[in-house]
Amino acid sequence: GAKQVLRGMLFVVLIIAGIILCNKEGKKANDLGADSADGDSAEEMPKLTKAEELKILLMIALTSLGYCAYSLFPKLSGAGAMSQTLPQGLGMLVGAVVISFVFGKENPFKMDKKNIRIASCVGLFYGIASLIFLVSIARNGMVNGFILSQLNMVIATLSGIFIIKEAQKIPLWRTALGVIAIFAGCILIQLI
Predict the structure, then answer these.
(1) Under DSSP, is residue 189 helix (H, G, I), strand (E, B) or coil?
(2) Alpha helices, DSSP H only, in the chain?
(3) pLDDT in tens, 98-125
(4) What pTM was estimated for this model as a whole?
(5) Cβ-Cβ contacts under 8 Å for 108 (sequence gap 6 or more)
(6) What is the tens place of the pLDDT at every residue in 4-43?
(7) Cβ–Cβ contacts within 10 Å for residue 121, how many?
(8) Residue 47 gets which letter from DSSP?
(9) Residue 108 DSSP one-character state
(10) Residue 130: how many CB atoms within 10 A of its CB?
(11) Is 131 exposed, middle or buried (0-12, 13-18, 19+ CB in 10 A)?
(12) How open is the CA angle 82-89-125, to the nearest 5 degrees?
């Protein structure tokens, strides 16, 4: 009903607010005087050419389309999650090779062994997460499965802080508030 849709939208906004709190850096006090006369910060982003902007927009469009298809096709096909894993893995492999040749600056076949090992571990973990996501879609439905997958932001944020010990660019209170908002939004949306 309308109440459920309204509550669902409110909880999605709560999740988005949590993600923004965890990621968006505020202006630091020591940077306040570093602005130039035209109001831009002293450390400006490099200017992109029109061709570079178009490449970026094309990559965003293709990856967004691919992610939508990745989430939607298993549900539409009615096949089980396990039978979808190999075709999706092959599709991601082909997509990664194409993207690395079209958008990459280095030859992907000239990586050193350490980078190959790290990339392989990341790929393995992503494969496990992908399989769990597909099982979740099959059991919980696409909307609920996707919302639950956003809890990975909580895990990634907490492991970055406590396991990897990444440098904190955002105050810990904001990160904690963001994690709580994401977690609360994901859980509350399941209850409606």
Answers:
(1) helix
(2) 2-23, 50-77, 81-103, 113-140, 142-149, 152-162, 172-191
(3) 877 776 766 666 767 787 788 788 888 8
(4) 0.59
(5) 97, 100, 101
(6) 888 888 988 998 899 888 887 755 544 444 444 444 444 5
(7) 10
(8) P
(9) G
(10) 19
(11) middle
(12) 85
